[in-house]
């Protein structure tokens, strides 16, 4: 079985990426087990990192993640890989058995659920809290305290991009994976909203992976505003074809969220963001 993994670097040297270094350490061991682990690195801050041996190297100056994911997925599947995985540069695979993950995937593929599953999600943990997979009610996502590994319904399922594994069948039926109007945030939630319309099920892998989630970091007002704008823009794109009632509820929710942010950060710019992103989403 062949697995291509894309690691996106941003303002980080190759040797400082725990994701890249921990995967490079597994590459030779997996080869001995008959697993072809192909590493693709996209450097989103040219000049900070230099190409390293054993990887396919790409770079551009802060390219949209949606474009990066789609471009590399296309090239990886065109090269004949069976599975494609996305990783942030700070996800740690040191204690992860990729061969065990692939065994679980193969087991599902060999069952009647195999053609109903297009993505496999590891359990991602940040600060001792499960951050993926999670659940969604309409446009509101929420964390879940625990999840049972195995095949699960895709309805209202969400997960973060890092660690997500796509099958070739998923690529054939959903390519491109990501809406390229989106830049950095909301790419994952948009994908899963589309995914549930194509595949009735997904699979949660019986593995826990340590991940440094940026949402758990303290935000400056400027950073918080950027994240809020991205969230608003992403939700409006994700629900642009839904009913008028759902879009009305979404706008009410966004107004509520903007007021809370404006009060918390004492900045009217969060309210203004509702009108700026409305124009961008048209």
Automatic annotation (TrEMBL):
Organism per entry: Pseudomonas pudica
Domain of life, per lineage: Bacteria
Record-linked InterPro entries: Nucleotide-diphossugar_trans
Protein name: Glycosyltransferase, GT2 family
């Amino acid at each position: 079985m062949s697995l291509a993994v894309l690691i996106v670097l941003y303002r980080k040297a190759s040797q400082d990426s725990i994701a890249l270094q921990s995967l490079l350490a597994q590459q030779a061991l997996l080869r001995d087990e008959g697993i072809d682990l192909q590493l693709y690195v996209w450097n989103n801050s040219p000049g900070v990192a230099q190409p390293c041996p054993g990887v396919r190297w790409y770079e551009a100056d802060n390219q949209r993640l949606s474009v990066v994911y789609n471009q590399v997925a296309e090239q990886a599947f065109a090269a004949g890989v069976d599975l494609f995985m996305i990783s942030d540069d700070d996800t740690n695979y040191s204690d992860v058995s990729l061969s065990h993950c692939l065994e679980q995937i193969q087991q599902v593929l060999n069952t009647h659920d195999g053609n109903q599953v297009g993505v496999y999600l590891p359990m991602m943990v940040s600060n001792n809290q499960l951050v993926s997979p999670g659940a969604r009610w309409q446009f509101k996502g929420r964390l879940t305290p625990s999840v049972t590994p195995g095949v699960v319904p895709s309805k209202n399922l969400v997960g973060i991009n890092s660690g997500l594994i796509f099958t070739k069948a998923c690529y054939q039926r959903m390519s491109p994976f990501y809406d390229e109007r989106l830049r950095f945030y909301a790419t994952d939630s948009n994908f899963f909203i589309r995914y549930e319309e194509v595949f009735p099920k997904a699979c949660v892998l019986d593995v826990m992976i340590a991940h440094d989630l940026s949402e758990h970091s303290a935000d400056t007002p400027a950073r918080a505003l950027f994240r809020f704008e991205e969230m608003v823009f992403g939700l409006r794109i994700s629900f642009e074809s839904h009913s008028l009632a759902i879009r009305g509820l979404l706008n009410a929710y966004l107004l509520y969220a903007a007021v809370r942010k404006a009060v918390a950060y004492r900045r009217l710019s969060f309210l203004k963001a509702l009108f700026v992103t409305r124009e961008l989403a048209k």
